[in-house]
Design goal:
alpha+beta, 8 strands, 2 domains, L-fuculose-1-phosphate Aldolase
């Protein structure tokens, strides 16, 4: 028997549904998917629930009533349609990575090309480090619709905010759908830049020291509470400079 969503949670559920509908349109606008491809899911604040897109629907044409509400045990709480075939994998990611509150799964072209080549995108471009991690990792192939796919994604996402999926696409995560969407867009952009550069010659990567320096600058910028003078920034940054 399906559980009912309590009244106090309905407002949060509706807000998440509306966000899923909005982002569903955006993944098509950014040509990250075609047809009925892709999956979106987002946790409902202050609950053990999440909202996920249904199977077989074009994500640009969704409405709130199309969406499925589930709990972290995998039970459907609300919805008339089957959830995405990737529900098993998403459950593994949500349950094993507590920092993940939203997931965007896409089939963008250059990211799939990288996955077909079985390559990770190394730290050659500064934006990779800022937005994704020290690299864009590659999750090993597993059949869609399986828990094993989720396990492979969890392994790849330990130190990254997105991963390439071998022979499949991209999975980007974040504290909300907007962040996850932006990371999915950035992954496609970085794959395009990296693979294009390799057509013309050897691509060199940032050293470990250079990668660490980027991390230090990001942390310093986050710590900076005021900026009334360039000296404020220089003083904050100096705390992170390594000898």
């Amino acid at each position: 028997m399906r559980k009912l969503v309590r009244k106090e949670k309905k407002k949060n559920v509706l807000a998440i549904k509306e966000e899923v509908v909005r982002v569903g349109k955006l993944i098509h606008e950014h040509t990250l998917v075609s047809g009925t491809g892709g999956t979106l899911a987002s946790r409902v604040p202050d609950s053990e629930l999440f909202v996920i897109t249904p199977s077989g629907f074009n994500k640009s044409r969704l409405s709130p009533e199309h969406l499925v509400v589930m709990d972290l045990k995998g039970d459907v709480i609300e919805g008339k349609h089957k959830p995405s075939i990737e529900t098993s994998a998403f459950l593994v990611v949500f349950n094993q990575l507590s920092r993940v509150k939203a997931i965007v799964h896409t089939h963008s072209s250059m990211a799939i090309a990288a996955g077909l080549l079985r390559i990770e995108i190394p730290p050659a471009i500064v934006k990779t480090i800022i937005e994704i991690g020290s690299k864009i990792p590659l999750a090993k192939y597993a059949c869609p619709g399986t828990k094993q796919l989720g396990e492979n994604l969890v392994e790849a996402l330990k130190d990254a905010n997105a991963a390439l999926m071998e022979r499949h696409g991209v999975l980007a995560v974040g504290p909300d759908l907007e962040s996850a969407l932006n990371r999915a867009i950035i992954v496609e952009e970085l794959c395009t830049q990296y693979l294009t550069a390799k057509l013309f010659g050897e691509v060199t990567n940032l050293s470990k020291e250079e990668v660490q320096e980027v991390y230090d600058v990001i942390r310093a910028w986050g710590e900076l509470k005021k900026f009334k003078s360039i000296r404020d920034w220089e003083e904050t940054l100096s705390k992170y400079r390594r000898g």
